[in-house]
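Appendix B, record 7
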Amino acid sequence: MEKAEKIWMNGKFIAWDEAKIHVLTHSLHYGSGIFEGLRCYETAKGPAIFRLQDHVKRLFESAKIYMISIPYSQKELEEATIKLVKLNKFKQCYIRPIVFYGYGDLRLNPKRNPVETVIAAYPFEYFGGKAMKEGVRCKISAWCRITSIVLPPQAKSCGNYVNSILANLEAKSAGYDEAIFENVNGYVAEGPGENIFIVKDGILMTPSAEAGILRGITRHTIIRFAKDLGIPFKERDIPREELFTADEAFFTGTAAEVTPIREIDNRVVGNGKPGPITLRLQKKFVEVTRGKDRNYADWLTPVE
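Structure tokens (predicted):
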């Protein structure tokens, strides 16, 4: 991982190498932290953070689900994020806020432990530029996506991503780029760190929240674009076989952005190339995040 100069930790900007925790940190042992992922993009008017307020709001919603009292306001974390990007002089970067229970007591009830709040920013690509152009190969995982009767999928919590790690490791060890989860009912859910969309006969489709997905902010962005561009759209259950017969498929996420899927379980999606609706939405995403479409200017927070 490429280092930055500074990290924001518990209200202070400190050197990257000084951001340390104790080995008996509660959340390290039990996965009881929550986090977010967001990006800053280079625009003609300077760096701008995409949907900052929405990401920080979701962080607080995750905290409420897990009964974590964040010792800062949403406004304070937004301002700290802006200052961090500016201090590190990034034109574009990935940003990772995380809130977790620190060192104190290793009993399961974490309330005796201090709540630690950290924001890091650094250069980061998930799939990379080639994948964004050509698409990725995916494997439907043997692991099911967590369900809300086990863990809350709508909370972006550290522990939830153990499920994702298992699926990703399985896919990578089999020679694929990424996994696709089904839920316990056998319907398509999402990727380990991405939402999924398919296109069939000109209709854009994605699983609904009831499928056990995280309501991704990039997912919401693409749904908004589809409606604004007049692309027919449906949220519904998607059986596995509809992935195989889809004309197009793609992932969305802060890390993945809009990444085409070219193959699923050794079955080529469409003609094996990013389809016209995928490319149209991908292009719009690039235009908006780079400040080239003023209709969505309120989604960009300038780093001043």
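Remarks on this record: The chain is about 30% helix and 30% strand. The radius of gyration is 19 Å.
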